[in-house]
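Honest question from a wet-lab person: if I give you the sequences of every part of a complex, can you actually get the arrangement of the whole thing, not just the pieces? Trying it with mine:
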Amino acid sequence: SQKIEQNSEALNIQEGKTATLTCNYTNYSPAYLQWYRQDPGRGPVFLLLIRENEKEKRKERLKVTFDTTLKQSLFHITASQPADSATYLCALVYNQGGKLIFGQGTELSVKP
Amino acid sequence: DADVTQTPRNRITKTGKRIMLECSQTKGHDRMYWYRQDPGLGLQLIYYSFDVKDINKGEISDGYSVSRQAQAKFSLSLESAIPNQTALYFCATSARPSGRTQETQYFGPGTRLLVL
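Yes, you can. This is the full assembly:
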């Protein structure tokens, strides 16, 4: 069965630095991949989507890359701020109209 | 007002009791989902519904049932609650994919359930 792995350890960085979170998957490549943000006790919120034929996507301080050879997506937050502290989830879809499969999430903590 | 609402937000119940969690949405989406989240395990899909007459089991449907009463309403029932069903439960919605829409899911605020 398909597996998705995100950094299980929390990521602690200093304000102003770039945070990089990893999402690895096994087996075949998904049709597209999404990143969500989740704050404690709240539902996930969609951030970005990248399709299998795209290498990179940007939105303000966020950047997502998708490497189908490495079977990996990287999620970057540049000029990080304490308000970026949250858990970030990656999710994959394997065919158009299919279900999302979520990773377990990586907790990011940005210190002032 | 929130687009996806869940009731109750918190619930404590005893082993063996039947409980229902409710979800309503005002986004006009066809698709609705129920997930549970346990610490360190991410979101696991319980049931999903692509329209009112279409209901499907997810990865962990045993011990759960659902009802899609209308396009806007999707309820999750625990027929006989057990302690290992203690978790955070989320409802989500999405639009039917098309050339202009993507499979983005919109989540409710969650229901925290404790089964004693």
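Two things worth pointing out. The interface with chain B takes residues 8, 32, 34, 41-46, 49, 89, 93, 96-100, 102-105 of chain A (CB under 8 Å). The two ends of chain A are 41 Å apart (CA to CA).
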